[in-house]
Amino acid sequence: MSAVPMNFESQPLDMNLWSQNHLARVEQALSQWVGDGAPAGLGDAMRYAVLDGGKRLRPLLVLAAYEAVCSGAPASAVVDDAALRAGLDEAALRAACAVELIHAYSLVHDDMPCMDNDVLRRGKPTVHVQFGEAQALLAGDALQAFAFELLTPDNTLIPAATQATLCRLLARAAGSAGMAGGQAIDLASVGVALTEDQLRQMHRLKTGALLQGSVLMGAACGHAVGEAYQALSDYGAAMGLAFQVVDDILDVVADSATLGKTAGKDAAADKPTYVSLLGLARAQAYAQELLAEAHAALARSGLPDTRALAALADMVVRRSH
Amino acid sequence: MSAVPMNFESQPLDMNLWSQNHLARVEQALSQWVGDGAPAGLGDAMRYAVLDGGKRLRPLLVLAAYEAVCSGAPASAVVDDAALRAGLDEAALRAACAVELIHAYSLVHDDMPCMDNDVLRRGKPTVHVQFGEAQALLAGDALQAFAFELLTPDNTLIPAATQATLCRLLARAAGSAGMAGGQAIDLASVGVALTEDQLRQMHRLKTGALLQGSVLMGAACGHAVGEAYQALSDYGAAMGLAFQVVDDILDVVADSATLGKTAGKDAAADKPTYVSLLGLARAQAYAQELLAEAHAALARSGLPDTRALAALADMVVRRSH
């Protein structure tokens, strides 16, 4: 190994290949773990909710953040201790799956009749349409519990402190000061004129917290500290908000077939969005600003290889669904 | 301190005083923590669901198991290390509150129209009646996340390994191989003739897993190992199943005013119960057998003071609601 850090940034990353490789690991792990040991009907509903070809953005963020931190780790600290490295690799894969379980459970519950009452998700009948409301409610509940189970396996090389940190980050990202809190604000905001600050706060919690949490969990798996951790946190905040701004834009400009879910729903439901607040052109410009913020945060992280994180932020802003 | 262990068992425990003291700590902690930092509507629903005068059996089991283990710990290991002892005391209180949050969330979701459709709980309107279905769904989800947040505080004296173990035990007790799994079996069993083995398995998961999990979490806070841990696990299993047998009996023999919820529901819903399977007299005898099993497990734990655990098992079997 060269003593001089390589300048990774100057080399192009084959992001398709990177995504393929990492997605394959995540899909294989989810397929192996989800629903295992659950009673038949519940296990089927859990697997249906998770193994459905989502974009897996959150798992990819975990793995990209973990690799970015490892790229900057002193060889003596992590890379040369094979058992620790194996434990941290396992932690990153489990964290990647755990955030996806939280995301999947939130979609199952969001789609239920008492919430958004959606019958279509990623082009398929939603879980409550397929399995009934009671089973959908239980499947969501069980997926949330299973996320924490995945982070705390028996007989593992994952350091206990890493397990505890991952549970802490995930619980906060998912809970009343994170995703669930944002959904509650969303509930209360139908038909209400929000200021831009209020809208930003709602979105930071509702979707931003788990996206940022994914980055932080990856960073925690690599034992990131100090400036690098803070920069990745800033990256996660900007990218997470950009995701929601683009979601608001796509709800207006895309059709249901491309989205895999009902388009134009926010306007129909009289929900405040970035487009309704800023207009389409300013919303698009704001998404670009946030993307630039995300890139700037990566640049100041001091980490030698943040190419995958940079590419994921680009994907978030340039996606068509 | 005497070098000869005191024979605690020969001294009567004032269980009313013990419960009062421990309940006061749990109520104070729940009142301080639940809903803190949540958006207003969500926080109100979370607090309504939790701060409602439940029996707090699960928190008391955590604290009683923790104290039983501490009563047998070598002074050098735990009692004399003030910082460790403070951390473990805090862990036990947080674990006590965390299991209650899981219990509370399960009641909120269970009561919803797509599940049991109950409008009365502990003599008050259920959460979805009071706050609407969407808010009830979110409050349950947020309470589950908050349970894991409570177990993993920042800047704490709780050892990381204890935090990880508590998250592991709670996630398993709550998830698809525990409470949620039991509820799924329950859903599928309406109108179905179960064998006694199948009924036992359903109840072991549905209510037994979290009751046993409470005991195990208390034991883990005291760093119990080996025989003592196994005996407490056996105690938890017998006591947990006894709880459900008595629940089935009370559904038949008690009235709604005493229960604080609708009596006779299981029979009306054509749900299999211990009474429908064994008849009332044999179900009552079975509850006594399980109580004896629970006491026998405590006797072989080797722990000097299991009086509170013994009294809690008695309460479980002799309760009138």
Automatic annotation (TrEMBL), chains A, B:
EC number(s) reported in the record: 2.5.1.-
One GO molecular-function entry: transferase activity
Entry cofactors: Mg(2+)
EC main group: transferase
Lineage top rank: taxon: Bacteria
Swiss-Prot/TrEMBL keywords: Isoprene biosynthesis, Magnesium, Metal-binding, Transferase
PANTHER family xrefs: FARNESYL DIPHOSPHATE SYNTHASE (PTHR43281)
Family according to the record: Belongs to the FPP/GGPP synthase family.
Identification of the protein by name: Polyprenyl synthetase family protein
